[in-house]
Write a structure and sequence with these properties.
InterPro entries: AmpC-like (IPR050491), Beta-lactam-related (IPR001466), Beta-lactam/transpept-like (IPR012338)
Distance between the termini: 26 Å
Protein name: Beta-lactamase family protein
Order of helices and strands: HEEEHHEEHHHHEEEHHEEEEEH
Strand content: 15-25%
Structural class: alpha+beta
Helix content: 25-40%
Oligomer: single chain
CATH class: Alpha Beta
Pfam families: Beta-lactamase
Largest sheet: 7 strands, antiparallel
Length: 364
């Protein structure tokens, strides 16, 4: 890996409209750590390379690992009915839905943050975007409340007959963990994963809106009565995405976790193999995407994440865990659409890290 090229690849995210990025790459030659952009709008200081950030859906890999540890212990089977362990949700919860279907996004459950309608237009659920989210970003939600909201809406398909990414699957997985263990999800995460790995900067924050220092600030740009506004959303209540996107971490802790997972330190080999087996149109295993990046790069496993506003995370590795990339991103006041610009910057970065050389120029 070329250090100048890695820094250029990081800077590409800033050039694409992000406020800042902190990044860490580990391989057989050691580690590269760097950042680009600004820690806070109006300032000149770069984001701290040891900063905490909201990791969004990267949380799902932690939760999948937690559930699979319970499977390994015999507390539940991977193909056991979820409803059988959560009778209070019956009959709304289809008894055909299994643990595997939750982790693989094949349950068919409506995603409580919204779903595409019949014509492909996104139909919002519980407010996770725009002014509605900004105004309610400190509200506390309960896991069962989120799941029941989803169960009150039609399923996308019959259990096991399709695949659709749904936050409901992982919030329901949290309810399952708590039912099986008799303890809060945050406590189980600490005891079974965070504590043993020494992940002192990773936490399930519950209803606390505080992002511990050090951190870069995240911003959210939204339209209100025809006027565009930008608000600092560093403080936010992540219970909107319990188990699906509520955790806080650092690039170092994400690297430690992902390397340990892929190298077999957290799960028995047969369960890890199933976790890494891609399924369906999403290429999703059990809490992980598996993606072939083509000639010269090969297969990587990953789970990126985005908080509702202000923050994003990257967690990518080779299947054997020998090379990993972890990063935290913050959005600023740019009018650029991250959904349009992010894939280009990410493609360049992945080719640099996992292809061993600079990427081809991005298409215009």
């Amino acid at each position: 890996m070329s250090k100048p090229e890695l820094h250029k690849a990081a800077q590409a995210f800033v050039d694409a409209g992000f406020a800042g990025i902190q990044m860490r790459v580990h391989d057989e030659d050691g580690a590269w750590v760097g950042s680009a952009g600004v820690r806070e709008l109006g300032g000149a200081e770069e984001p701290p390379t040891d900063g905490r950030f909201w990791v969004g859906s990267t949380t799902k890999t932690f939760v999948a690992t937690l559930v699979l540890k319970l499977v390994a212990e015999g507390a539940i089977g991977l193909d056991s009915s979820v409803a059988g362990h959560l009778p209070r949700l019956e009959p709304a919860l289809d008894e055909r839905i299994t643990v595997r279907m939750l982790l693989q996004h094949t349950s068919g459950l409506y995603s409580y943050t919204g779903e595409p309608g019949p014509d492909g237009t996104f139909v919002p659920g519980i407010a996770a975007t725009g002014k509605a989210w900004v105004d309610n970003r400190f509200r506390t939600y309960r896991a069962e409340e989120l799941v029941r909201f989803a169960l009150d809406r039609p399923a996308r398909f019959e259990p096991g007959t399709g695949q659709s990414y749904s936050n409901t699957n992982y919030t329901l997985a949290v309810l399952l963990v708590e039912e099986l263990t008799g303890r809060p999800y945050a406590e189980e995460m600490r005891q079974r994963i965070l504590g043993p790995l020494g992940l002192r900067d990773t936490l399930v924050p519950g209803d606390s809106p505080e992002l511990p220092e050090p951190h870069a600030h995240g911003y959210y740009r939204y339209e209100d009565a025809g006027e565009w506004k930008v608000v600092d959303v560093t403080r936010q209540n992540s219970t909107l995405l319990i188990g699906a996107g509520d955790m806080i971490s650092t690039t170092q802790d994400l690297q430690t976790f992902f390397s340990a997972l892929l190298r077999g330190r957290l799960l028995p080999a047969p369960l890890l193999a199933q976790m890494l087996q891609p399924h369906g149109a999403l290429g999703y295993g059990l809490g992980l995407f598996v993606q072939d990046l083509g000639p010269g790069v090969g297969t990587v496993v990953h789970h990126h994440g985005g908080a509702p506003g202000g923050y994003g995370a990257l967690m990518v590795g080779t299947p054997d865990g020998r090379k990993t990339l972890t990063a935290g991103l913050t959005t600023g006041d740019s009018a650029a659409d991250p959904a349009q610009e992010f894939p280009k910057a990410l493609d360049r970065l992945l080719k640099e890290v996992f292809g061993g050389g600079p990427a081809a120029p991005a298409a215009p």
